Each structure stands twice: as C-alpha cells, then as structure tokens.
Amino acid sequence: MNIRVKFEKGEARCPDAPSTQEIIARDKVSAPDWVCSESYEFLGDEDISIDRYIDPAFAKKELQTLWKKTWQFACREEHIPEVGDYYVYDLEHYSFIITRVAENDIRAYYNACLHRGTKLRASGTEGCASEFRCPFHGWSWNIDGTSKNVVCDWDFPHVDKKSMCLPQAKVETLGGFVFVNMDENAPTLAEYIGADAMAHINKWKLEDRYIVAHVTKVIPANWKLTMEAFMEAYHVLETHPQVAPSNGDANSQYDTYGEHVNRFISTLGVVSPHLKGRISEQDVLDQFTVGDSSVLQGADRKLQEGETARQRMADMMRGMFEQATNTDLSAVSDSELLDCFSYTVFPNTFLFPGISLPMVYRFRPVKGDHRKCIYEVFFLRPVPKDGERPEPACEVRLEEHQSFTEAEGMDPGFGAILDQDTENLLLEQEGLEASAKPGLTLGNYQEIRIRHFEKTVEKYVYGK
Amino acid sequence: MTNTTEPSDRLDVAEEQSVTLEFTRFCELSAVPEGSKRARKINGTMVLVVHTKGKLYAVQNLCSHQDKFLHTGRVRNCRITCPLHGAQFDLATGKATCLPATKPIPTYEVRVVDDWVEVAV
Ligand code: FES
Ligand code: FES
Ligand SMILES: [Fe+2]
Q1: C-alpha to C-alpha distance for B13 and B25, rounded to whole angstroms
Q2: Which of A20, A247, A255, A324 is the most buried (most CB within 10 A)?
C-alpha cells in the first residue's frame, strides 16, 4: 500500500509493523503494567540549537545551574555497606565523600578540609574510614561530620569547633542507588522523578542486584551528545547492522514522564521492520547476539514449525539465566527477560531494568572540557537466591583508544555494540562544530527522548 | 617506633632474598580465617597477613604515604585501603593504586606448612 495517511504531528508510527505493545501482548508469560503502558506526548518540532554541545560558555552555565540543582546518581549502596565506608563522587570540580554514618543514614560531604582546603579523600577512590583526617596538617572529622580534632587548637581561638562540621549535600536512596543534590531547596527525589516513573522504578527492585562489572571510558564528545546516542533505536540499522535482524528497531516505543524521566522499549527476538520479508524466524534466532550472551552457550537453536524466535529466546533465557545466576525468574515476563528497556533519569543516569540487558550508565562532563565526557557502564545482576551478596566489581578504566571488548567482565558482543555507539561521537561533535546549520533536526516520535531531555536542559540553564 | 626504612636494613633483606627465601612462622592458619587479617612484627619488620578470596597475602603493615599502620583498613577486591587518608595498595604487588600514596609497599612470600602461615621476611 502506498497511500500516505495524514497524521497529526507526532501521531505517525512505523507503518506496516506491529507495535511494541502488540508484540508483547503475544508473549506466553505476560508483562506487568509498567511495560504495558504508553506515555508519549508531542513536544514540538523546532530544531535544537547546537551551542549547547559546542560552546564552552554554555557548559559553564550548566555547571552553575543544571548540575547544582539536579539529583545525580553518586554511587550504589553496595559500595558503602558498612558504617564508615565511603565512595568519592566527583562532578566537574565538585567532589563529595559519600559515606554511611549509620545503618540507614548516608551523607555526602563536600570533599574539602575546612582548614586550608585539601581534599580529605582523593578523587576516584573508595574505602573505609573511622575518621576523615586531612593528610596536610591532620585536622580530622568524625564519620558524622562533626569536628574531631584541630591540631594545635591553642592557635585557633577564633575557630568554634562545634560549628566546624563538614558541609553536606542532600542525599536520598532509591533502588539501591545513592543520589545527591547540591541544592538545599531541591524537591524530594520522589517528587523529582514523579509518581508515574516512581511506580515503575519501585517495581524493579534494583536494590536486589549487584554490580558484576563496571567499565569507564572517556568519550570525545559533549556529555549530552553522548547520552543522546543511547536514547533512540533509530540508529540501530546503520550503526549496529549485526543487531538489526533481531530488533524491533523502527517500531520501538518511546515515552516521557514528567520532566526528568523518559524511556524506550525496544523489542528483541523479532524481525526489524526494515528487513521484513527478507529474513526468516530462524535467521532472527541465529543472529540474536544482544546482551549477556555468555549464559546461552551451547543452546539448541533450531526452531520447530510454527515456533517464533522470540518465544524460543524467552524460554531459553529463562532457564539459562536462572542457572547461570542462581536466581528465580519464574515470575518474570518474557518481555522483561528479552527486551531492551532504557530509562533516563535526568541528568546523568540510564537505568535498564531488563534481565538480558541489565545495565546502568552514568555520564558526566570531563572537568574543564565540554568536548569530553566520562561514560560508565555498570552491569547489574540479581543477587543469588542463597542471599550471599557478592562484592561490587572493581572499576575498569579504559584508555580512550581502547575497545570496550577489552574490558574485564564485558560481554564481547555487547562491547562491540558500545564501540559502534561511541565511534561516531567524535564525528558528531566535530561535525556540529563544522556545520553551517545552527540546529539539530529531530524525528517526532523516535527522537522524542532527546527533545524531552533538551527541554529539561533548557529549563535549568535558561530558567524556562 | 624505629625507622624501618633504614638503608642498611633494606640491603640485608635484599641480599637474603637473592640467595634462598628464609621463611618464618607467622601464626597458625586458623588464626587468619578467610576474610580476616593479622599483623605482627617479625624479624624487625611490621608484617600484615591478609586472607581474602581464598588466598593469603603478606605485605608491610605500614602505609607508604605517611607511615601509618594499615591493619584496620578495609580489604576489597584484593586491595587494602589505608584507614588514615585512603591510599590503596594491591595486596599481590604492593602497588599504590590511588592517591595520596604514590610509592608501593613491600610484599612478602607467604606459604602454609603444617597448618602454620609462614612469611619470608
Ligand atoms: S589543610 Fe587540612 S589540616 Fe591543613
Ligand atoms: S598514611 Fe596511609 S594514606 Fe596517609
Ligand atoms: Fe546503539
């Protein structure tokens, strides 16, 4: 059929393909509410100005406005299980010591001595302390932030020890994540995320997962540009040709929730609408490579007459993930096992609550360089059902020239996907700097997450 | 505390090791169960034995940053964190893995003989 139906703006969807919801509705083990709902809203179709990616002055403004007012994922609770455990979280030149003061009391101290400013703990470190003692002259603070010792206090009669507490940023926890916010007047994390998205996050029980791998790499592009490379499945056909045959890319679903959360659902184990009629169900199964494929080694991959690749994948994954990770997945839907659920929590976090793609991403600008960002990939697996929580994996720091496939704990197929995602970014950064066109043009549906994200950027930076 | 990094001391240790390693009994194996550590002075050297992830490690019990004891530091992923200012050392190699330390700490051969932990210092 070649009739082009006229749609209202934002209403058009990939033609002649089942919707994400239709695909999921056919699954054997049905999906929960948070999967089976839609929340798309048309947010305009103007170009997105490019100064936000290429202008150092914009980056400076972001630091004073956006980064100082938003809730940021600083560490996982599992990084600081015991009282006195700490983790240093940096954002540009800001630095915080995130520490557990009591079983249910986590604080974020500005990481600077109140004498002459020395960082109390080096950036990029974690450990356990019985006090925070400055390495310069030895002033020290208790874990609860109160002053413990001022060396030669006879020389500091003007210092009131009682008021010399370490200044704090706000802290909240959610799903095993510790969030910090520098704004004393910030809304609660629950208000910030909003009731709809909170209902999703609360269902995932991410607090019952642990970090099985943690890989960090500096990417030569603006932090927003880099994040936005992960906000749509529109690029899959061109960027990840090996994935396209088994990914519902052009018919992925996009949703926004309030100002700070958006998501896509990208189904797997189905033929891409781009390749419809050109590949078979057996091809889909044969080419399914996404995610934590290590658990599928040696599986029988021959489809019976009438069997779908998607259902076979779901059945196989359930059994093999249960075995490989010693967890009970009987209540988990086919969709949660297979599909890619990608959520952004503004400004620095991606959560992927699925089972086969269990990642968390964190993005931050590199200090003093708006053209670079720090990209971190965490893989989260359910804690084994015998209850023994493994230690979180050590961070592996890759050099800029290294491939993600070289990182310990990285599935090689997934590492190759991340390489493809990030290899284009320098070209995009440089292209924007070279461009004669002052704005980015976005698709109304498939790129709605980018528009939504940038609207929130503008809200913070321009006070709009 | 005596200065343990006296050049002459160091030389002696180096010479001994280049011939054959002299092992000294450190403690009974049952005194350092998995997930624990134990500090002792042997042959004039502060030694820390750590039992983690199914392996025994022996390192100098003094941080290379400002010479403080390491034995109350947290061990995770085969690294020990100095409780004072947070430097970290790889237990296998002694390498300083983060600031404020930049120099390594000595590591020692360790073995188990007749349920005794022995360290070559
Ligand atoms: S700068 Fe911290 S004690 Fe002097
Ligand atoms: S003495 Fe160990 S970090 Fe300073
Ligand atoms: Fe991608």
Answers
A1: 17
A2: A247
Cα gap A288→A106, rounded to integer Å: 42
Superfamily of domain A72-185: Rieske [2Fe-2S] iron-sulphur domain (2.102.10.10)
Beta-bridged to residue B112, according to DSSP, are B117
Residue nearest to atom 4 of ligand 1 (CA): A137
Determine the average pLDDT of the residues in A163-171.
97
One fold for A20-52+209-462 and A72-185 = no
DSSP A397-462: EE-TTS-GGGSTT--HHHHHHHHHHHHTHHHHHHHHHH-S--EE---TTTTHHHHHHHHHHHHHHH
Q: Where are the domains of chain A?
A: 20-52+209-462, 72-185
Q: Write the residue in A125, A129, A133 that is nearest to B98 by C-beta.
A: A125
Separation of alpha carbons A259 and A37, rounded Å: 18
Nearest of B80, B82, B36, B31 to residue B55 by alpha carbon: B36
Q: Which residues of A touch chain B, with CB atoms under 8 Å apart? A: 82, 85-86, 120-122, 124-130, 133-135, 391, 393-394
What pLDDT shows up at residue A229? 98
pLDDT at B2 over 50: no
Q: Which CATH number fits domain A20-52+209-462: 1.25.40, 1.10.150, 3.90.380, 3.40.50?
A: 3.90.380
Cα of A135 from ligand 1 centre, angstroms: 7
Mean pLDDT of A249-272: 97
CA separation (Å) from A54 to A118, A348, A436, A452, B112? Answer: 33, 19, 13, 20, 61
d(CA B11, CA B7): 6
Is residue A273 within 8 A of residue A250, CB to CB? The reply is: yes
Whole-angstrom distance between the N-terminal and C-terminal Cα of chain B? 19
Interchain contact, B86 vs A393, CB within 8 Å: no
Separation between Cα atoms, residue A160 and residue A444, nearest integer Å:
59
Q: Nearest residue of A to residue B78 by CA position? A: A394
Those of residues 93-112 in B touching chain A at CB distance below 8 A are: 98-100
Tens-place pLDDT, residues A303-320:
888 899 999 999 888 888
| Domains parsed from chain B with CATH numbers | 21-120 (2.102.10.10)
Closest CA to A166 of A124, A128, A94, A115: A115
Specify the residue for token string 């070559």.
B120
Chain mean pLDDT for chain B: 87
